[in-house]
Amino acid sequence: MRPELPTRRDEAWRWADLRHAEAFLETPAPANDALPETDHLWLDLAGPRQLFVAGQPVGAAAQAPTPDRTLPRHPLADLAAARATAGATLEIPAGADAGLVQLLHVGRGGAAHGITRVILGAGARLTLVESFADEGQDHWLNHRLDAELGPGAELVRVSRTLSGHGLVSDRAAVRMREASRFVHLTLGLGAASLRAEVEVLLEGAGAHAEVDGILLADGAAVLDALTRLDHRVPDTSSRQRWRLVAGGTAQASIAGGVAVARHAQKTDAEQSLKALLLRRTAAVNLKPELEIFADDVACAHGCTVGELDRAALFYLGTRGVPPAEAEALLTLAFVADALAGLPEGALQDALDAEARAWLARHAGGRA
Amino acid sequence: MMLEIRNLHASVDGREILKGLDLSVRAGEVHAIMGPNGAGKSTLAYVLAGREGYEVTAGSVTFDGTDLLSMAPHERAAAGLFLGHQYPVEIPGVSNLLFLRTAINAQRKERGEPEISGADFMKRVRTEAAALGLDMEMLKRGVNVGFSGGEKKRNEAFQLAMLEPRLAILDESDSGLDIDALKVVAGGINRFMGPERAVLLITHYQRLLDHVRPTHVHVLMDGRIVESGGPELALRLESEGYERHAA
Fold this sequence. Notes:
The structure holds two protein chains of two kinds.
Chain A: H1 19-24, E1 49-53, E2 56-57, H2 75-83, E3 87-92, E4 97-107, E5 111-120, E6 125-134, E7 140-149, E8 154-161, E9 167-176, E10 181-188, E11 193-202, E12 208-217, E13 222-231, E14 237-246, E15 251-260, E16 268-277, E17 283-292, E18 298-306, H3 310-318, H4 323-336, H5 346-362
Helix pairs in contact in A: 3-4, 4-5
Chain B: E1 3-12, E2 15-25, E3 30-34, H1 41-49, E4 54-63, E5 66-67, H2 73-79, E6 81-84, E7 91-95, H3 96-110, H4 118-132, H5 136-140, E8 142-143, H6 149-163, E9 167-171, H7 179-192, E10 198-203, E11 216-221, E12 224-229, H8 231-240
Helix pairs in contact in B: 2-3, 4-6, 6-7
């Protein structure tokens, strides 16, 4: 039976572009042994790497991880669990530091589903960069990440979409035990469609989540993100910083959700959603969604949409900086604070450089 | 002639502000343009720097013989023109150092010169910052972010020193400064001046001219230069005001 996909009539999907999911729902990516050129798609950072082409691992045996069935139901994530035939399981024992792992998912001419399962023991640490790209054809990559963080564990995950065609849908769902720490960055650079979701269940006192995102939309891209930070117990905290930039006729959207359960007192949840329109033909949507049922909480949120400061552009011009470079510099300054949640060092620098390069190509009247 | 302005007419929002302004500046000269509020002093500065919304309706401006008005603001900067802003802009997220290095290299690129090396850049930053009493921690912060009015003007003087233009147009560089800061900024202007360079000081008050001695003083009223003279003119304006020109 053909599964039902969400439609724009569903509030949570009103800004999503699922045309390629509809088109490829029953069309798996064609089998093909040819390997794509991927050198330029990895971040130049040390650590283990695994490539998946159309959902299949390259140079490793295919084995689908067992999804976490206790996570909230979700139409696309459920579909990934039902249809994925391969994926990655990263189980890090208590106290171990697994360093940085990169997974690269390349889509190819049809639908491919994938699962990444992360289980961190008490005090374990992992940095996971998952990148999504394509071979220049329309496709649908549908991915889910299921993560459990033991007490005091720390997971940093970057979901990086470079895709220029088709649709990437990526949903991260994370359970956090006491004093664990989760940092998530969604980096959407594609000129295609992206649906990025992050749902965090803060289930242990002292758990802290930083869920940040940078969506750089150009051409006719439709980049759409949705988060839900679910504070289920007292004394947890979260911070969300999203920076959206849209040029061309692109659309970038974020629905930033915070839920605080009735007994989850002393929750500290902060949210900042900001968007910059490079062209009047582009569109951005910002929607903070707060559901707060406890009374002793701090939930700060802010939302702004703006354009580049013309006085600042002139100031840069009088110092000799050409308009395109000035626009890129100001736009980079605008997005940079969404990178602040990442630990300082090589990963942050690499992503900063990537955002900078994208802006140099796309900002400044070239959109 | 370094700067030649002939019969310059300019409008803002359809209202004529400059009404036939003539001015000639040679290398080695310091010209002070004085005048009451609303005379068109800042409009002149913005027209020379190329700000959008400041429309030239007649006249010509040449800089080293080249038509200045046909150039974009960044091209004017690369050609050697510097505007010291009356209200320097704050740019959060772009450090003063990144901003300056970007500016220097953009100008060098425009002129077909190689980029400045990191070591040379930092060496010059340390020297010039020390001379203007700006500490390095401030320079690592966002451009003008959290700076007092005086610190912003010192930062303009710092940029002037670092960018080494040939013509500096300084718009109310003395406004908002206490006497100590005024001396520091004046010191920066005096260090900048030389036989190959020129300064156009736009000021409401005479007090900056106690520290930066002009070679020429002009009175700007209602969009035109109505009187020109030497330093003594500034002193007379200080005691008499602009009333005698107001008719």
